[in-house]
Fold this protein.
Amino acid sequence: MKSIRNSVYALAIMLLGFSACDNNDESTLPTPDPDTGEASTGITMSLKTTGGDETEFIVSEEDIMSGEISAEGQGIEQTGWRFYYPVGNTLFASGYSDDNQCAGYADNGEGVIEKKGEFIFENALEMFGHSEDNQTLLAMEIPRAGFANRRLHFIDVNTVSVTKIVGTRIFEDQENGVIAWPSALMVRGDKLFVPFHKLDAEGQFSTVAPNTAYVAVYSYPNVGEMPEKIIEDDRTSNIGVNGTTSGMIKTETGDVYSFSCGASMAGFAPAATKPSGILRIRAGETEFDEDYFFNVEEATEGGKLFWFDYVGEGKAIARILKDDTGTPWSAFERDIFNQKLVIIDLVNQTITDVANVPDHAKRYSSPVLVEEGKVYVSIETANEAYVYQVDVANATATKGAKINGKTIKGFYKL
Amino acid sequence: MKLDDMLLRGQLYTGYKIDSTQSVDVSFTQNYLERTGNDEVDEFNRSFQSPNYIQKRIASLAYNLADKRDRFGITGFLKQYWYTGRIVTQDFENNDVVTEPSLTNTGFGGVFSYHPIRFITLKASYEKAYRIPEPHEILGDGIYINPNPALTPETSDNLNLGFRLNKSLSQQWLLKVDNNLFYRFSRDFIRFNPLGPFGEFENLSDVTTRGIEMGIHLNYNEWVDLQLNGTYQDLTDQNEFDEGLPNDNYQSRIPNIPYFFCNGRIGVIPFRQLLQARIGFYWHTRYVHEFFLTWENAGNPEDKNIIPSQLIHNFDVEYTSANGHYNITASITNLADALVYDNFNIQKPGRAMYLKFRYFFNKPS
């Protein structure tokens, strides 16, 4: 008892506590000065810096073929890792796992890039596409596990606002626990093509049926909850690669080409046993062209397509994994520099290595900017990162500005 | 997502005075946390389904030596750190990945203090220190902080130089001044990396901290009490490379950490002779200078994300009955109702009022 008496007991009673949290209209947060934004002239880039959090910036330069590209003291700061997807002269920067917001940047009429609008979403938008008139951004939320709708957002490019959301499963097999992971959203005429990977429903990202290409075909713009049909082709593997929006591309005449990878390094688990290659859907058709298959693996002696994008006149620029010897998903890292840059003649089925470009590692790219037959790419090797200008017709490249950062995710004209 | 934490904490301390000039202190602390969790919404989320634990133990032994006239003092100490854990996370294929961090290391240090004159103390110290991640840093908080099982303990060499003045200016006036210069070289510096609404703690391989702390304390006859404190610290990234490429933030200021802040407090305790009770009025002001969310060197400084400067005033009135049994405190926090933030875009409370009654059953005199 004595010890109890000697101890001090405190009884604290919060009798009354109220607080006022009324929000003042005037915010003390600084509003950006319109004079301080990035110029919209020249070439705009999404630059990922090195160090710590790898903050990303939107920067512009008149000349990207000499000197250095840096965010030192310039650039529009972004939050977290982002997807960058241009539609017309508007650049959309969309948050990934860290930030559920998507902003549209464009020229403000005075030569300065400004955020013209933004919207938020529930789950990360992980696949992007656009209407043929460049007035609508298409973006899809993809829940990572379970049977749930993939929510296709229609975003007005001018107002940067969501005008419609359509929920679709694309494909699912509840009995066997299989869901669909879209790998492109491509509009052609009155159709929307959505190639997809079949994944386990538990969110383990295992590719349960890697040896077939699958495409869901919807009507457009009145996209329904169910696709009109799903087409398949077992000459190659699932179309596209996680995060790449250009798994399926379209020529000026309306022919559609898709690439299939199937590599373990690119996240296919198990890896496909079918060769990496290119399939075609002819203009006006909604079935694979049975007379066309470009076996890229054979043409490159074991290489697998990791990325491609359309650069005009029936040609694509592409990155080929020269081998698939890395650990799962390692093509998305900076350990193995085994990607080569090539120009593919889609019609004639030829591949030409782009001269003067070293083997490199490149994870994510926005759709390419093509100007007068020239394409800019960011090439990162073990110890340096540089811009290269690729001459499509001659399959040659010129080394340009040094990148002070980890990568340039994309090049844009705003 | 429901998380259950089981905590086991213990602390042992003992001191022994060898003679009038020598003494020994021994202490032991232990900290064990076990976390289990269950997600009732997402059936496939297996975070914390198998228990995670973190065990920290620190033992320290200090030896103090002072001369008979108390002109100088020397302390030498050893600290033994034991750190083990088992953290189960899921990789992108939802397979369990077990991380078992562990550290067994010995830190050490010494303090030398010297009184050139009676009321002045000069102090120099060095410590080789280890900072073991706190549970919320490595396991996350289930809300805003994502777990990072790869987080490793921070190692640092700390140097301090201190100056203290403690002088009665007259019968009534007492003045204390504290100045401290610090220099820290940290490996695997632990910092919070904010990523939108979420973030995680991460290690920065090489960070240097230089700073100064200053404090003034003035007291008049236990009637008026004034305290002013300020800190300026410069934390910079000294890592030259990131994954083989030059680090863009080399020698740039570490973001999202305040680098200048100060506070002041004035207390008035009037009528002490007149009243049986004691009534005190306290005004407290705190200032934190604005700081950047991301690295200082990158991006247009005019439109970079910042955590704006904070200036907060609080006011307290405290009433204590003569023998200390009853205690009533009335407080107004954030008097000016300023819009303030500690974290980017996460607002702190505005003006608030509190009234607190406290009763001590037993009050040691």
User: Anything to note?
Assistant: The mean pLDDT of chain B is 90. Helices of chain B lie at 135-139. The two ends of chain B are 48 Å apart (CA to CA).
